[in-house]
Amino acid sequence: MSEFAPRRPEVLDFLLTRRSHPSVTLSAPGPNEAELTAILTAGARVPDHGKLAPWRFVIYRDGQGKAIGERLAQMAEERNGPLDDARREQELTRFTRGAVVIGVISTAAVHPKIPVWEQELSAGAVCLSLVNAASASGYAAQWLSEWYCFDEEASLYLGRREGERFAGFIHIGTPTQPPFERPRPELAGIVTNWQES
C-alpha cells in the first residue's frame, strides 16, 4: 500500500453494493444547491484524455417537468399517432419522477490527437460518476436514455446543440422503496488472461 493510494474499504463496499433506483420510484426532496454543486463537481472528475471536457450538463429542476412532459407527449403523438392513457401518462411524467434531472450532453468532436470514441467514453464515465455521487450524497438515482435522447427535435428542445448528442439523463431524488438486486455477470464468463499467440 502506498501513501499516494490509501486504502478506502468503505468506498469499495459502496461500489460493490450500490444500486440504481428506477426513476418511477423516486420522489422529492432532491439535492439542495450545495449538494447539487458537489454532485456535478464529482461528476466532472472523470478520465478525460487531453483535458477536453467533451461534455456539458443541462439541469431540469423541480417544477419544469410538467411542461416538458406535455411537449414530449405532443411530439410522441405526432410520431406515433394517438397515445393510449398509459403511454400518455408515461410521457407526461418523464421529467417529474425525480426531484432533479441532469442531462449529460456529449460534445465530442474530431480532434487531431484524441479519438471521438475516447471523448464519448468520457461522457459515459460522467453519467456513472453522477449516479455514484448522488447515491453517496444520500439520494437515489437512475441513468436513462429514452427515445427523446435520440430524436432530433426532442433533443434540441431539451437543450442539445447542433453537433452534440445526449449521453443520457440522470434522475435524482429520494427513494420510496428499497432497490431490488439483479443478476450480475459471473467473472468467469467475462474475464480472460491474455497470452501471446
Radius of gyration: 19 Å
List the total number of helices: 8
Give the proportion of residues in helices: 40-55%
Major sheet characteristics: 5 strands, antiparallel
Mean pLDDT metric: 96
Number-wise, the strands total 5
Global geometry: globular
**End-to-end CA span:** 34 Å
Report the portion of residues in β strands. 15-25%
Structural class of the secondary elements?
alpha+beta
Residue stretches low in confidence (pLDDT < 50, at least 5 long) are none
One letter per element, helices H and strands E, the order comes to HEHEHHEHEHHEH
Tell me what you see in this structure.
It holds the Pfam family Nitroreductase. It comes from Roseibium litorale. Belongs to the nitroreductase family. Its EC number is 1.-.-.-. The protein has eight helices and five strands. With 197 residues, the chain is of the alpha+beta class. Helix 2 (33-43) packs antiparallel against helix 5 (116-136) and helix 3 crosses helix 4 (85-92). The mean pLDDT is 96.
